[in-house]
Amino acid sequence: MGQPTHALTQHDWWRSAVIYQVYVRSFADGDGDGTGDLAGVRARLPYLAELGVDALWFSPWYLSPMKDGGYDVADYRAIDPAFGTLAEAEKLIAEARELGIRTLVDIVPNHVSDQHPWFRAALAGGPERELFHFRSGRGAHGELPPNDWPSQFLGSAEPVWTRLPDGDWYLHLFTPEQPDLNWAHPAVRQEHEDVLRFWFERGVAGVRIDSAALLAKDPALPDFVDGRGPHPYVDRDELHDIYRSWRAVADAYDGIFVGEVWLPDTERFARYLRPDELHTAFNFSFLSCPWDAARLRTSIDETLAEHAPVGAPATWVLCNHDVTRTVTRYGRADTGFDFAAKAFGTPTDLALGTRRARAAALLSLALPGAVYLYQGEELGLPEADIPLDRIEDPMHFRSGGTDPGRDGCRVPLPWAAGAPYAGFGSRDEPWLPQPADWPAYAADRQSEDPGSMLRLYRAALRIRRTTPGFGDGPLSWLPAPDGVLAFTRTDGLTCAVNLSERPVDLPEHTQLLLSSGPLDDKGLLPQDTAVWLHA
Ligand code: NOJ
């Protein structure tokens, strides 16, 4: 505690780290073709160092037909040519390290792209069919899917089975271009452990595991019978053996894992974080929680209680490439996040949402454990409305067009207010259109504005790095009026957040370290404002 988390020698850095998610396609376009790339990231490493993050998590950068934004991987050992080359990725990893920044890659083990050599060979009728889930259909002529499983894209009415001309069906929990692997097959396990080694050998410090609770399937592929017995494909016990082997691979390199585990059952969630399994998992209950003091406090308490028995640090996440951007969500009447409730045209008050997002940033950065930031969160970017004819996300299409999809949080970043495409790239239009007011959010403009979101994040990350008490460690709640969250950490560090309508007194302190907005003229903490104090 109190150690600079960026010290590259620090073995348990991940227990307190601030990890920044890079969605390469939308981060920065180095070659001007409208798509973000590794050259763009390399040019912005000084920006990330100045922001003060400890590590970068790259959403999949591998060879991919991009049917699901790169989560359809055709080759786990090659960089997509739109992004660059493997040699550039190696340079990027090394250059980031020079700046004290570690790298995490994103492994997608549940499925591959339909262009992956294994699936192509399977379609050609080879023995590779055993590496997937191929079945005959039901009905007199096999014309019905083998079972009734619901799609993992919520709101999707599409089946999770696709029929081939030869009459067989194959399973895909996501799009038809993402066939599910058969994790009961030893070659699937072997291959993924080799892929992990491949990236650890290249100097990555950790791996984010996509859809981590979905890999194992009931071999009988039975119908989905709600609530009775183990689920046929979510959170099956067989997964833990897989992750124990992965942990042995990671330990040889001092590497870490963060699992994408969406599970409402806290006890089942914590099983993934036992000391010989994953180091951490994303805290989606905090992400989904409405802006409400009592509910946030419950979410925080439950998070800490579920992690304590397994000795794993919590993670705090407000957004990522799949969910509605924070400032938009917090400005709505319903401030929680729910995939099933996404709709076009939900009204939002961005000034209110931004005030709350600033307070939420200080709250999450003061909680015990690690924090994930999603690119553009530090710029306070809102969710963008994407014209219907420009939407690319399969979630939109698989919902029959009712779900806006996830492109609204994936819009290319604004870097320079006066430059074409707000400085994202130089020549071609970005792959997703930027809203007209994007220049107002540009990083260069925010750099000059002491009241900007970027300046708040820079200040917060600098204080979090250099002041004892942040990161992993204990938390004690302080007595506080209704609607106010106040807690102390070690070394006299205190955080208070006022979600009530009335301004409140600050907890006892000797020094105001940082506030998310101005105090009122009586020195009270106004609504939707957070402070860090030294007692
Ligand atoms: C979770 C990823 O975050 C999401 O973007 C993707 O669509 C699914 N997994 C399928 O890989």
CATH topology of the largest domain: TIM Barrel
Total DSSP E strands? 18
List low-confidence stretches: 1-6
Class per helix and strand makeup: alpha/beta
As a percent range, the share of helical residues equals 25-40%
Q: Tally the helices: what do you get? A: 14
Bound molecules: 1-deoxynojirimycin
| Ends distance | 17 Å
Q: Strands of the largest sheet, in order across it?
A: 11-10-9-5-2-1-13-12
Query: Which architecture name of the largest domain does CATH use?
Result: Alpha-Beta Barrel
Please indicate the count of domains: 2
| Biggest pleated sheet | 8 strands, parallel
Morphology: globular
CATH class membership of the largest domain: Alpha Beta
Nearest-angstrom radius of gyration?
23 Å
Name of the CATH superfamily of the largest domain: Glycosidases
The share of residues in extended strands comes to 5-15%
Q: Report the mean per-residue pLDDT as an integer.
A: 96
Protein name: DUF3459 domain-containing protein
Organism: Streptomyces dengpaensis
Family: Belongs to the glycosyl hydrolase 13 family.
Pfam families: Alpha-amylase (PF00128)
